[in-house]
């Protein structure tokens, strides 16, 4: 009898321990502090990961190419170049070879790239890079080291090549030529989003857009590659703009679910970007 009691006690104790472990795991799984924020571009069987701030800069650089009507190859070259020059971060310092270098592309005011304030403006810097790139005949068929070097005049031209696969993957997604190819895993926003801020940033990135605001959502009547360019741009900027959901071409990216792009019953035409609601 005593042995039976001990067995029952042990079983109950194990059940309590198992329940406690399950509860702790469940809490940890829901904990926002454990979410490792990152963005991944997948093209074919290859995937490439960047930090959220780097991804936002890739989105801006690529959007400028889309706005100018440039091919995805131009964006690939620009992204690989900026990755080598600044790690895709808008830094306000240079190195020994170029002490006055600044910005995403480490452009030097002393070499005619513009003022320090101008080259520190990501939109200006991206346009300045493309201004140089389009002057190069046949840049689309050139090796990336040749095209980038012709614009940048770097002391280490071969270094650009190592970033070409990453540049191609993110450019393919962010120009809209690869569908549902960019995903960001993010914690939930701490503040409410502003649809007007989304419209302003979209306009800065892509130029004039047909956008309508309904409640917490921004609606754009765009289709094809342009739709996916905008949709991926929204995911890339979700952290900064408190975006919680993006709907495009029958697919949905939901920040809270963290499942990437999933099939959706939402309208398949256009793109809808939804920001977080005010906390109560």
Automatic annotation (TrEMBL):
Domain of life assignment = Bacteria
The protein's name: Heavy metal transporter
Q: What is the lineage of its organism?
A: Bacteria, Bacillati, Actinomycetota, Actinomycetes, Micrococcales
């Amino acid at each position: 009898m005593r042995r039976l009691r001990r067995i029952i006690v042990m079983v109950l104790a194990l059940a309590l321990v198992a329940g406690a472990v399950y509860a702790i795991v469940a809490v940890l799984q829901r904990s926002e502090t454990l979410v490792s924020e990152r963005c991944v571009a997948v093209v074919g069987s290859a995937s490439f990961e960047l930090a959220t701030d780097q991804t936002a800069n890739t989105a801006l650089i690529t959007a400028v190419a889309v706005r100018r009507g440039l091919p995805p190859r131009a964006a690939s070259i620009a992204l690989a170049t900026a990755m080598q020059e600044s790690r895709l971060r808008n830094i306000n310092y240079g190195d020994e070879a170029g002490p006055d270098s600044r910005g995403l592309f480490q452009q030097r005011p002393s070499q005619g790239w513009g003022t320090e304030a101008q080259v520190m403006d990501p939109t200006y810097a991206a346009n300045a890079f493309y201004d140089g790139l389009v002057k190069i005949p046949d840049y689309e068929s050139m090796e990336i080291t040749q095209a980038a070097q012709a614009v940048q005049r770097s002391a280490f031209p071969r270094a650009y090549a190592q970033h070409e696969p990453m540049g191609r993957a993110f450019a393919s997604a962010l120009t809209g030529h690869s569908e549902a190819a960019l995903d960001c895993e993010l914690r939930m926003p701490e503040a409410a989003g502003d649809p007007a801020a989304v419209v302003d940033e979209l306009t800065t990135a892509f130029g004039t857009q047909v956008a309508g605001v309904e409640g917490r959502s921004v609606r754009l009547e765009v289709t094809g590659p342009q739709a996916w360019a905008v949709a991926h741009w929204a995911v890339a900027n979700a952290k900064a703009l408190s975006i919680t959901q993006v709907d495009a071409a029958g697919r949905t990216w939901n920040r809270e679910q963290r499942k990437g792009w999933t099939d959706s019953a939402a309208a398949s035409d256009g793109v809808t970007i939804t920001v977080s609601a005010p906390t109560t």
